[in-house]
Amino acid sequence: MTDPAPGRALAGKSATSSVLPAAAATLCAMISVQSGAAVAVLLFDQVPPAGTAWLRLSFGALLLLLWTRPWARSLPARDLGAAAALGAASAAMTLCSFQAIDSLPLGTVSAVEFLGPLTVALFGSRRPADLLWPVIALAGVLLLTRPWAADANWVGIGFALGAAVGLAGYIVLTQKVADRFTGQQGIALSTTGAALFTGLAVGWGAEGSWWSPRALLISAAAAVLLPIIPHVLETLALRRLTAGAFGTLMSLEPAVGTGIGAIALAQIPDPQQLFGVVLVCVAGIAACRGGARQAEAAPRGDTEPTTQASSGDTEPTAQSCQVNTEPTAQASRVGPTR
Description:
Oligomer: single chain
Radius of gyration: 20 Å
């Protein structure tokens, strides 16, 4: 009788060799997202946060439009409407996020925003035990923001919570866009819509300092760091990771944001804040491993990732750390999420 052990060992080695690069790509995507936010902060002394958000979205939209060329085919009005709705959610989320990081540490804002995906996961789950994870995450956020303190920054907290609401809406709308578009057209059109909505909100950048070489260079760099690089890396990662595994890794983003804030912006957290970040990450990991939306049996032909990683499904999956050889559209962002 042939011993199957060597075959199993070879399969395990192949799975590991596929998972590790995908996990590294996911980590690099998170670093790129948080670095993009940190780079944008460098512009706040010259351009207000709302203006910086508009410049970054505008550069991102331009790059994505040149890449995808969505004008090459006609699009139904309903599809354009879905992209516009996602763009509006993205605009609100980005505006609130940039206003928040103007007055709160980057890691704190990232953790507060994570309440959005956890809320979506809560509504998508029927298991009573899943009610625990948002409570744990909220406890972590309270340790980070300290609303009981006399010097609590309520304006920054309010904007961060607004970004969390925007992110929750963004997650829901992302799947609708992913169902209607193929390739990367959805992200290009939604980012364009976000730039237009943000421009209407901030007045299109009337101040001359918005157009200085420094402002344009920083905005372009921020646009490349988010959404271009994360989108590419996440797409590559999703070809090898299941939605559950990807969502588990993405739950570490508040910790990544804290690290980037400490390194790039000298925002050093104290032990209490570090414990708050740990609580948020643990809650996110638990929510993602509890269940993830399953990929469709028949692929839609859409390789665009979406933000459903954190939206726990009603059935737990035992595949969260196994290799997925088919790209899945269930677990990532479609465009700017910070």
